[in-house]
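Progress narrative, Year 2. Work on PNPLA domain-containing protein from Albidovulum aquaemixtae advanced from sequence curation to structure prediction during this period.
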Amino acid sequence: MTFTNQQVDTGPGKGMAHIALKDVALATSAAPSCFPPHQIVAQEGGAAVNYGFFADGGTFANNPIMNAIEVALANNKISSSHETSAISIGIGDMPIGVPGTAVGDPLQWGFFEWIGLGSKAPYAALLELSLGLSAGNDTRIAGAILGQNIVRLNPKLSQSVALDGRTADDYKVMLDAVQPWIDYDPSRDAGNPDLEVWRRALALVNGW
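Result:
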């Protein structure tokens, strides 16, 4: 299901505009194995409508940028993709991979080696690999459609943070990753190539 705050008459976002933002956030964050599914009951026309239980949107669209374009096109909010601009926000680019020293003989690898039980590979490296690459692929496709009208904000983290991480160290890693954006000063940082993506995002927002 695709949630949208637009009043749409067709497609995956139909009838979703009245659902509370907190329910959308809880539903799309209900990652299997980390959190329970979230039940949405919303008021529609004075009556309670039970939409059932929802799991993390990442199981359906880890990067929903193409879904957003679909909703806009399917409901005549735009006449073509050229009228669209978008900012896609990720959860952070984490340094997770399988080092060469952990591989050994790759021809002997199976399920347990990939998930780190029969090798020195980081736990869930395969899951992170699939999620990260699928999100990147969606960004690439959207970029081919929208050109310069899309910006992907996905700051590089200095270390991995668990999906349900909430320690002080976890928050510090995430804050450190975005602090240069928070401290951005156009007069001072105009020529900093590391802040180019943030400059483009601000330009898009100011153009809206």
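The first strand starts at residue 38 and ends at 44. Residues 125-146 form the longest helix (22 residues).
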